[in-house]
């Protein structure tokens, strides 16, 4: 199932929320309709929150079914709110926008080459998966350049065949090239998804939606 959506006046909905198979962390200022879309299309429980007082929750959090990795800038009250729902690991790295810098599903994770070795170990422990360092399509911010679920992956149109092979090897899913929001390569910023469905930015064209549906195996 797929639906067009918008949050906070922007079609970059993936910036405002992070989801796994059962839970979504959503920007606290989100409109009720956006929250209902997430609950309906992804079939998840939602928790409204901020991260370091910011509403760009999707940029600062990466989750799979085993745990969540969050920015080291997270405040104590925010951390306690999230820990009530999922195991949380804080990323005290200079590069700590976890959502932007980690691409993950329940099988594996690809992380920005700019993350430290210590961060790599923390991410592996938090997500319970193998972790591999690589850029994708020339982007070190792999979490904003791609989206992945336990069924499929959509990566930006600059991804190479080697990138696609790496995704299959680490995440265990086929990757398809695509764009979102009328040509944006930042597919992770414009899509919120799990294996049950996807919300895509409302500027996404029908052709783009077809490629996203194919890449995420939403049929």
Question: How do the strands and helices of this protein lay out in sequence?
Answer:
Layout (H helix, E strand, L loop, with lengths): L1 E4 L11 E3 L3 E5 L4 H11 L2 E5 L7 H4 E3 L4 E4 L4 H8 L4 E4 L6 H4 E3 L3 E4 L5 H11 L2 E4 L8 H4 E3 L4 E4 L4 H11 L3 E4 L8 H4 E4 L2 E5 L4 H10 L4
Parallel strand pairs: 1-15, 3-4, 6-7, 9-10, 12-13
Antiparallel strand pairs: 2-3, 5-6, 8-9, 11-12, 14-15
Give a written overview of the molecule.
With about 220 residues, the chain is of the alpha/beta class. It has a single domain, classed as L-arginine/glycine Amidinotransferase, Chain A (5-stranded Propeller), CATH 3.75.10. Helix content is about 30%, strand content about 25%. It has nine helices and 15 strands. The protein has a three-stranded mixed β-sheet. Strands 2-3-4 form a three-stranded mixed β-sheet. A three-stranded mixed β-sheet has the order 5-6-7, with helices on both faces. It starts with a strand and ends with a helix.
Per DSSP E runs of 2 or more residues, the count of β-strands stands at 15
Tally of helical segments: 9
Largest sheet: 3 strands, mixed
CATH A-level architecture: 5-stranded Propeller
Estimate what percentage of residues fall within beta strands: 25-35%
Strand order of the largest sheet: 1-15-14
The chain-level structural class is alpha/beta
The backbone outline, from C-alpha atoms, is globular
Give the radius of gyration: 15 Å
Oligomer: single chain
- Spans of at least 5 consecutive residues with low confidence: none
CATH topology: L-arginine/glycine Amidinotransferase, Chain A
Topology as H/E string? EEEHEHEEHEHEEHEHEEHEHEEH
Number of domains: 1
């Amino acid at each position: 199932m797929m639906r067009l959506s918008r949050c906070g006046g922007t079609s970059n909905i993936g910036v405002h929320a992070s989801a796994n198979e059962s839970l979504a962390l959503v920007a606290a200022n989100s409109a009720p309709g956006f929250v209902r879309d997430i609950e309906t299309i992804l079939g998840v429980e939602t928790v409204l929150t901020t991260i370091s007082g910011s509403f760009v929750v999707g940029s600062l959090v990466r989750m799979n079914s085993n745990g969540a990795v969050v920015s080291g800038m997270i405040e104590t009250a925010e951390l306690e709110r999230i820990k009530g729902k999922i195991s949380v690991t804080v990323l005290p790295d200079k590069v700590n926008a976890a959502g932007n810098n980690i691409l993950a599903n329940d099988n594996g994770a690809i992380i920005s080459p700019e993350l430290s070795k210590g961060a790599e170990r923390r991410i592996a422990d938090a997500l319970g998966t193998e972790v591999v360092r690589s850029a994708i399509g020339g982007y070190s911010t792999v979490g904003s350049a791609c989206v992945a679920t336990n069924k499929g992956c959509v990566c930006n149109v600059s991804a190479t065949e080697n990138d696609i092979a790496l995704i299959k090897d680490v995440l265990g899913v086929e990757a398809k090239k695509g764009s979102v929001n009328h040509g944006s390569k930042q597919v992770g910023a414009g899509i919120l998804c799990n294996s049950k469905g996807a919300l895509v930015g409302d500027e996404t064209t029908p052709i783009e939606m077809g490629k996203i549906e194919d890449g995420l195996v939403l049929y």
